Amino acid sequence: MNQRQAAKARTRQQIVEAAAAEFAEHGYDGTSFASVAAAMNRPKSAVGYHLFPSKLDLAAAVVEQQQARWLEMAARTTEPAGLANLVTMLLSACLDALRCPVAAGAIRVSQELGEAGQPLPRAFTWRGYTLEHFAVARGLDVDDPEAVRAADLVISSTFGVLRTRASSRTVEATELQLRDLWSALFTGLGIAGADEVVRRVTPVSVAEPANPALAEAPATGAAATDATAEGGAPTA
After folding, report:
1. Are 132 and 81 within 8 A, CB to CB?
2. pLDDT score recorded for residue 218
3. Whole-angstrom distance between the N-terminal and C-terminal Cα of the chain?
4. Cα 118 from Cα 29, distance rounded (Å)
5. Residue 206 CB: number of other CB atoms within 10 A?
6. Which of 8, 141, 161, 223 lies at a CB distance of 3.0 to 4.6 Å from 219, suitable for a disulfide?
7. Residue 80: CB atoms within 10 Å
8. For 206, phi and psi rounded to 5 degrees?
C-alpha cells in the first residue's frame, strides 16, 4: 500500500469513527455530513463523495465494520446454543458499545434504519441471532410467533438501556442493570433457571480491528495533498 492509499484508508476510518459517535449521540436523522466534519474539526469537503456517496452509505460502513466484530464475538463464545450463549453475546456487545463509538453507533443506526425498512449489511443481525437462541432456550421453532415477539422485546429493551443511559452512570452499574433486566425478562418469558444463567456468564472481547493502513506513517507532501484534493462536498 502506497502513501496515498494509506492516507485515504486512514481518512475513511476517521470518518467512520466520527460518524459512528454522531449516530450514537444523535441518531441517523440527527446526523449529517456537516456534523461529522465538525466533530472532526475539518471542513465539510473533507467528507467526500469518493468515500461515501450518501449518508446511508456512511451508516452502512459503520454497521458493516461492527458486524465483523459481532461475528468474531460469536465465534469466541463457547456457550452452547440457548440462553447462556445469547446473554453472553448481548453482554459482550453492550460492554463493547460503552467503550467503542463504532459499536454504539452501529447498534443505534441498525435499529433506526431497520425499523424504517432501509437496506443495511446483513452479515450479522441481532434479531436473527436473538431469535435463534431464544427459540432453542424455550424449545420453540424460530418462526413461532411467541419466539418472534420475545426476540423483538429482548432487543428493544436491551439496547434501550444503552440509549437512555446517563453519562454519569458507570460501566459496572450499567452491567448490573442489564443483568437485572435479563433475569426478570427471561424468567417472565418462561425460561427456567434464567437468573442463574444471567448471573454466571462472562463477556468475550475482541481486539480493535487491525487496519494495516492505519499503521503506515502519515502521508506527507504530494500524497497528503492528493488525499485532500480528492474530497467532494456531499449534502446532508
Report:
1. yes
2. 42
3. 31
4. 13
5. 15
6. 223
7. 10
8. -130, 150
